[in-house]
Specification:
Blueprint (H helix, E strand, L loop, with lengths): L1 H8 L5 H25 L3 H18 L14 H6 L3 H12 L4 E3 L5 E2 H7 L8 H27 L6
Helix pairs in contact: 2-3, 2-5, 2-7, 5-6, 5-7
Family: Belongs to the ABC transporter superfamily. ABCG family. Eye pigment precursor importer (TC 3.A.1.204) subfamily.
Subcellular location: Membrane
Protein name: ABC-2 type transporter transmembrane domain-containing protein
């Protein structure tokens, strides 16, 4: 199945990195949803809150707005977005290198594309994106525990 998936996606980067990033992204996003579910009083408000935050995360992850185009007052949203790190990491995995994408009117390489998007072209930077996601996953799980431990109304007797 993995070989079939790799061939179907036609990835030029490491397939193992793709799988690790997919898992880390799922883990961090799930941790965020678990945290939000511990804060809100019922599932309807939780569902609405998760959708609202996910929309904001998508807006400020760098896909719709370049990271350098985000207003200063909203830069924090780019940092806390659980969508920023998989987006940038997978772009680094796919485009990093000197593979040529266009020759007319100028030669355009993968590194040129990443620099135009203000994404790092350092070799080990893409693995830092995985670590950032895992860090956010741990952070949200700790917040989840703290909310349940100290703010929950369902106390054991």
């Amino acid at each position: 199945m993995l070989i079939t998936t790799g061939d179907a996606l036609r990835l030029h980067g490491q397939f193992l990195y793709f799988l690790v990033m997919l898992y880390a992204s799922l883990l961090s996003t799930n941790s965020f949803v678990v945290f939000v579910s511990s804060v809100v009083p019922n599932f309807i408000l939780g569902y609405a809150a998760v959708i609202a935050f996910t929309a904001l995360f998508f807006l400020f992850c760098g896909y719709f707005l370049n990271s350098h185009s985000i207003p200063v007052a909203w830069k924090w949203m780019n940092t806390v977005s659980t969508m920023k790190y998989p987006y940038e990491g997978l772009l680094m995995n796919e485009f990093r290198g000197t593979r040529v994408f266009s020759r007319e009117p100028i030669t355009l390489t993968g590194d040129d594309i990443l620099q135009q998007l203000a994404i790092s072209v350092k070799d080990n930077q893409k693995w830092w994106m995985v670590l950032y996601l895992l860090g956010w996953a741990v952070f949200y799980r700790i917040l989840f525990y703290l909310v349940l431990r100290f703010a929950s109304k369902n106390k054991r007797k």
